[in-house]
Write a structure and sequence with these properties.
single chain; alpha/beta; about 400 residues; globular
Length: about 400
């Protein structure tokens, strides 16, 4: 299973505001029959089936002196909570909205983004009729937008309702999504979770790669009315959202991410590494790089030795911090390359099209990888805090 498939078309990913708007939630989908989420085949990942979320998550750890070791991954056999994951724009279907048959691109992104969370939780990931790359390409070149974003939202909403009715049984759940998936989850929380009994089941909402609007200086009251930003790893029922850019290449004025047009509102930035107490990030980077839409990844070390695991860890090399420039709030990534460090100082992840780096997209391709370990550990720490408040939960 390759992860390059998912990243190959990332230059056509949807801008966050397009998926964050209320129009995705308010208009029911037309004619096409809704998926039946009571059927296992309507799920990309779910407990009890062999699926992409079971893919190999082993990582090669490379230290500054060039020494290597292998971190073996194993999923928990006693999950105490659930993860509900919605994948980003990946479908290569030629239609404006995808079908309900998983291709290698859906399989790949689930392995890349969701599989590692199985260290602690049961992973549920519905297939949904998402807006496709073909639809986004058409829009980018000025053709009419014939995609049905409401359809995508209502599919995920139906999957969520099926999960609540037949799988949740009072367990705590972490919502996880990226890009289009993050925007849909933001709408799901705002339209279908806040103010309902289900809100009590939410451990946290991890939605990088979309812009969450909050009133300047406040934690809640913009896109979400009663789901505040997370401030510590013990906070529950809160949201983690950020968009990643290089510290030395901040968002330009035309950035797709981190900018909110409404007066008095700003884009949220919550740094997962800061929440888990790390001075540097716990990154899990794709061993082969960030895919065909980015520059190819060179050797990881000065000796050119190959890496044979799907992922690479580079402890101490990367750090993140929330930053602001102009109207944009973002997660700034710094690479701490030293002359004595035998590891590469080049971490790919920028979208490159026609030989040019698209600065307005930042490091969208690696929003999750640069802090993946932090996100996974955060989910577990927050789950423990949630379980302490809900001792009668089935997993408590």
């Amino acid at each position: 299973m390759t992860m390059r498939v998912y990243l190959a078309a990332a230059m056509a990913l949807a801008a966050a505001p397009a998926f964050a708007s209320a129009q995705t939630a308010d208009t029911p989908p037309a004619a096409a029959a809704a998926p039946d989420y009571g059927k296992p085949e309507s799920w990309l990942c779910r407990p009890g089936k062999v699926d992409p979320c079971d893919a190999n998550q082993d990582a090669t750890i490379i230290k500054a002196d060039g020494s290597r070791s292998t971190e073996k991954f194993s999923a928990t056999t006693d999950p105490k909570f659930d993860c509900f994951y919605v994948y980003p724009t990946v479908s290569n279907d030629p239609t404006p909205n995808s079908d309900m048959v998983a291709g290698p691109e859906e399989d790949s992104v689930a392995a890349f983004q969701a599989g590692r969370f199985a260290k602690y939780c049961r992973v549920f990931a519905p297939l949904y009729r998402q807006v496709t790359i073909a639809a986004l390409r058409a829009k980018l070149i000025g053709k009419p937008d014939t995609s049905d974003r409401a359809m995508a939202y209502h599919d995920v909403k139906a999957a969520w309702e099926e999960y609540l009715a037949y799988d949740n049984h009072g367990r705590g759940v972490v919502l996880i999504g990226h890009s289009q998936g993050a925007g849909i989850l933001k709408n799901l929380v705002a339209k279908a979770i806040e103010g309902t009994p289900a809100q009590q089941q939410i451990i946290s909402v991890l939605i990088p790669g979309t812009t969450v609007a909050v009133p300047e200086g406040k934690d809640v009251g913009g896109d979400l009315q009663s789901t505040p930003l997370c401030h510590t790893a013990k906070d529950v029922g809160c949201v983690v959202s950020y968009v990643t850019f290089r510290a030395d290449a901040p968002p330009p004025a035309n950035s797709h991410f981190g900018i909110v047009s409404e007066p008095g509102m700003v884009g949220a930035c919550v740094d997962p590494a800061a929440l888990t107490g790390g001075a540097t990030t716990d990154a899990y980077l794709g061993a082969k790089g960030a895919g065909m839409s980015s520059l190819p990844m060179g050797p990881w070390t000065t000796d050119g030795a190959p890496v044979t695991t799907p992922f690479v860890k580079v402890p101490g090399l990367l750090s993140t911090a929330c930053a602001s420039t102009g109207k944009a709030n973002y997660l700034a990534l710094t690479i701490h390359a030293q002359p004595t460090d035998k590891r590469t100082g080049t971490i790919v992840g920028d979208i490159v099209y026609g030989g040019m780096t698209l600065r307005d997209w930042g490091l969208h391709l690696i929003d999750m990888p640069v802090v993946m370990g932090n996100l996974v550990e955060l989910s577990n720490l927050q789950a423990k805090a949630w379980l302490a408040k809900h001792p009668t939960s089935p997993a408590g």
